[in-house]
């Protein structure tokens, strides 16, 4: 009788937990955040990384970028269209120019999701050391636009939001 | 004495004790999340007033009944509060800000800035601060203006002020 009582309580708790997971957790927002954090992780490298490691990073980043997109980051004097096929070239250029790179996304917030589109805002803390050893750390507010293609969220637009306007 | 020490470090786990722990934890969470936000300074833009590596708290209730005014030092949030900019307010809405030869002019009047130790040769055309904005700059003007993050921002972006 006692065991039955505890089983019933356990079953009720599991059911409540499952209902909370189904109705109160935004799985699409979690997927968007996971994708953006994965890109930030792949955009982190050091001089010790081998060419194979770099090739794998490029492949992973390319998978997460839409066919056609746009990057607008005035702090880096970048404002141009970027195609999925351009990603390897740009990343290799960046690797030659920046020997040490670390990208961390803080305060990542999904602003809106209207399938198949989503937008997210985050503070990107970028620590970079150039080929000459000079450090160039930046903190930027970036707005990402994503679209869901075949169940995978891909980044189509990256835009810097100016916090301080000169 | 030994008994006191034993009771202090190994208290009896009673419901009153657990309630005390819960209240202390909740209060600490509210205070350090919303009122006194701890932060560590990274960067030289506010040197020598605030140096890199130093620790402080952002008092988030400072502007509940007032507005940021010069020469307040304020924390400006970015996408959130995890990373904030630490800058000094030099002008408020409607005022005209200009830099000439490194000197700050607000509404065509030269402003004395004793907190600025090394002045660079900054030249910036006059800019009018928009309604609802304030103009913020760092104290370290020894770097070129292009390398320094400064400008006008909405008052709503200001989280609070450093506690010291």
Structure description:
The complex is a heterodimer of chains A (166) and B (164). Chain A is an alpha+beta fold and 166 residues long. The mean pLDDT of chain A is 92. Chain A has helices spanning 2-24, 27-42, 51-63, 87-97, and strands spanning 65-73, 78-83, 98-114, 117-130, 138-149, 152-161. In chain A, helix 3 (51-63) packs across helix 4 (87-97). Chain B is α+β, with helices and mostly antiparallel strands. In chain B, the strands form two sheets. Chain B has a seven-stranded antiparallel sheet with strand order 1-2-11-3-4-9-10. Chain B has a four-stranded antiparallel sheet with strand order 7-6-5-8, with no helix packed on it. In chain B, strand 6 (103-106) and strand 7 form a beta hairpin. The longest helix of chain B has 21 residues, at 15-35. Chain B is elongated, with a radius of gyration of 21 Å. Classes of the chains: A alpha+beta (166), B alpha+beta (164).
List strands and helices in order, with pairings:
The complex is a heterodimer of chains A (166) and B (164).
Chain A: H1 2-24, H2 27-42, H3 51-63, E1 65-73, E2 78-83, H4 87-97, E3 98-114, E4 117-130, E5 138-149, E6 152-161
Parallel strand pairs in A: 1-6
Antiparallel strand pairs in A: 1-2, 3-4, 4-5, 5-6
Helix pairs in contact in A: 3-4
Chain B: H1 2-9, H2 15-35, E1 36-40, E2 55-59, E3 73-77, E4 84-92, E5 96-100, E6 103-106, E7 109-110, E8 124-128, E9 133-137, E10 151-154, E11 158-162
């Amino acid at each position: 009788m006692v065991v039955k009582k505890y089983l019933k309580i356990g079953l009720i708790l599991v059911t409540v937990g499952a209902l909370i997971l189904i109705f109160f957790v935004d799985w699409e927002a979690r997927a968007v955040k996971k994708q953006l954090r994965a890109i930030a992780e792949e955009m982190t490298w050091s001089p010790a990384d081998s060419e194979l490691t770099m090739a794998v990073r490029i492949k992973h980043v390319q998978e997460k970028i839409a066919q056609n997109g746009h990057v607008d980051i005035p702090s880096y004097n970048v404002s141009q269209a970027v195609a999925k096929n351009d990603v390897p070239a740009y990343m290799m250029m960046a690797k030659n120019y920046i020997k040490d790179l670390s990208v961390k996304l803080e305060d990542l917030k999904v602003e809106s999701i209207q399938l198949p589109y989503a937008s997210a805002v985050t503070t990107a803390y970028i620590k970079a050391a150039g080929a000459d050893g000079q450090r160039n750390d930046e903190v930027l507010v970036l707005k990402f636009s994503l679209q869901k293609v075949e169940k995978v969220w891909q980044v189509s637009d990256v835009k810097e939001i100016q916090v301080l306007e000169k | 004495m030994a008994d006191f020490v034993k009771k202090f470090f190994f208290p009896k786990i009673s419901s009153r004790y657990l309630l005390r722990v819960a209240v202390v934890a909740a209060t600490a969470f509210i205070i350090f999340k919303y009122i006194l936000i701890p932060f560590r300074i990274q960067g030289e833009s506010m040197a020598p007033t605030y140096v890199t590596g130093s620790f402080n708290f952002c008092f988030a209730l400072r502007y509940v009944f007032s507005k940021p005014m010069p020469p307040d030092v304020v924390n400006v949030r970015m996408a959130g509060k995890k990373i904030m900019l630490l800058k000094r307010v030099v002008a408020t809405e409607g005022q005209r800000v200009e830099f000439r030869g490194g000197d700050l002019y607000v509404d065509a009047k030269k402003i004395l800035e004793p907190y600025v130790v090394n002045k660079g040769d900054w030249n910036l055309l006059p800019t009018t601060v928009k309604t609802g904005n304030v103009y913020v700059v760092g104290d370290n003007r020894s770097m070129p203006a292009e390398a320094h993050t400064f400008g006008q921002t909405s008052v709503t972006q200001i989280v609070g002020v450093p506690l010291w």
